[in-house]
Specification:
The protein is mostly helical. The chain is built from 8 helices and no strands. Helices cover about 70% and strands about 0% of the residues. Helix 2 runs antiparallel to helix 7 and helix 3 runs antiparallel to helix 6. It is globular and about 50 Å long. The N terminus is likely disordered.
Length: about 180
């Protein structure tokens, strides 16, 4: 069975409930068709979930807002970038949603903030991030370059999340795509 709803399920629990009529507290044995449908879900959402996990991993490389002696890091990041989005209170809901594998809000907010940054703000933000990464990541680059790599990685990963969230293809759309390439 190919999932062709306009909005794909957001979680395994929702998938099991909506498409397999299994309650979330299901404790029985899964049949082969159940397992294959679960595998289908994992395959269709793999890019989005993996990109979301990578984005969370990048953020986890920065100090947690309550970490001492880095309490001023987020303030300095906000000042350097010019975007209030980078204040922990403004990011909190999106980060928590990403921890539950829904990174679309976080990705959208990051891309919006990056889009509003000037070239000078980008360099300043990269420097602030890079100074923290020097202590946390053993990579042979200067602080600003480390920060720029981090910012670019967040930008590209955010794009991947939003691109993957555009929706799954139906079986017919996949076949039309395949046939189009066969005829090309």
């Amino acid at each position: 069975m190919m999932v062709s709803s306009p909005r794909p399920p957001e979680s395994l629990d929702e998938y099991l409930s909506r498409y397999m009529n299994l309650p979330s507290d299901f404790e029985g044995q899964l049949r082969v068709d159940h397992v294959s449908k679960i595998a289908l879900l994992a395959t269709t959402h793999c890019d989005r979930y993996m990109a979301t996990q990578h984005l969370v991993s990048l953020i986890a490389g920065l100090p947690v807002p309550t970490d001492e002696p880095y309490e001023d890091f987020w303030f300095r990041f906000w000042q350097a970038s010019g975007s209030a989005y980078f204040m922990p209170g403004n990011m909190k809901a999106s980060v928590l949603a990403a921890l539950d594998y829904d990174g679309t809000g976080l990705a959208d907010r990051f891309l919006s903030a990056f889009n509003e940054m000037s070239a000078e703000q980008w360099v300043a933000a990269a420097t602030v991030i890079g100074e923290v990464l020097v202590e946390r990541v053993a990579v042979p680059f200067m602080p600003r370059e480390r920060g720029e790599l981090w910012l670019r990685d967040v930008q590209l990963t955010s794009w991947r999340i939003l691109y993957a969230a555009r929706g799954s293809f139906t079986w017919e759309q996949r076949e039309a795509f395949r046939n189009g390439w066969k005829e090309a």
